[in-house]
Amino acid sequence: MIHGSDSALVERALEDRDPFPGTRGFAGDLPDGRLVRDVLGRVPLFVERTGEGWGFSPTALADPVPFPAGHVDDERVWTLPAPSPFAGEREAVAATEGAIGASLALDSDGLAVAFSGGVDSAVVASRLEAPLYVVGFEGSHDIAAAREGASAMGRDLRVVECTHADIERAVPRVARATDRTNAMDVGIALSLFLVAERAVADGFDRLAIGQGADELFGGYEKVVRTDHRVESDSVRGATREVIASLPDQLERDVLAIRAAGAEPVAPLLDDRVVRAALRLDGPMLATDEERKRVFREAAREFVPREVANREKKAMQYGSLIARELDRLARQAGFKRRMDDHVTKYVESLLD
């Protein structure tokens, strides 16, 4: 069984050594029994540490470890290509715009959109006839930004306001589903889970997300600074390092959404978008003044300029979920002077 594609397409990609055969990721077993996972790890896949069993979720296994992205069984067959950069920014913007537009040609049946008001989720929402959902505590940055963004785009918005009871109820579910207990992973997973949970309660079974744009298009400060957090001394090289972190992040995000009963849809991780992003170089990605430069320029074809230009906080901070998770941990006796106090709190809820 292959998730995300059909086995014939995957087998052709294997024969051609083509890492981007026209999917949004795939994983599973081929007809001959070999396990396979795409080069960006967009579909989670796990194996027993003993090597005797596999599944699409860690909860299905006794001692799961992630199956490595780009592999067929023990062999790495796909790696990120390093194509020649675009000749100029105009060509780069046109190619990125075309790739994004193609990726958004989706069936909107049963689809909702996780919408934070930032450029990534706004671009995803722009061509989809689907309701927009934002999650956060009252007074959070994300709720305010989503209201402004939805208003600028002429769209209705459904607000999922969190309470401490929601966090306490959801933490064990997302920690078990993702097999993670650290504060950052749980905070991100909670945001996605709570949005997906409300969308499912409203009758939707798919959730469109903007994941991938920051990694692909130079959205992180460290790719501009090329500081101690990256090994490369170039913006393009640092961006490729960040792209290599996608398999680990996407496992968490996909599993959190599935735990709520929805299937994630990530248009900006479409092979066509990835191919365009890999041809960006230097200032096309980011400068000291602006991150995701070409992406934002292309985004103006889809969303109002003020939305395309908007900076936003990471979802766990913009929603205030990370802050309130920390507050709950301290109220439960896990003080900040303790190492990894939020992790210990999460683990106590699992016990």
From TrEMBL:
- Which species is this UniProt entry from? Halalkalicoccus jeotgali (strain DSM 18796 / CECT 7217 / JCM 14584 / KCTC 4019 / B3)
Keyword match Protein biosynthesis: no
Q: Does the keyword Transferase apply?
A: no
| Any one GO BP annotation for this protein | asparagine biosynthetic process
**GO MF annotation terms:** asparagine synthase (glutamine-hydrolyzing) activity; ATP binding
The record's InterPro entries line, in alphabetical order, gives: Asn_synthase, Asn_Synthetase, Rossmann-like_a/b/a_fold
What positions does the domain Asparagine synthetase occupy?
111-225, 240-335
Keywords, sorted A to Z: ATP-binding, Nucleotide-binding
Q: What is this protein called?
A: Asparagine synthase
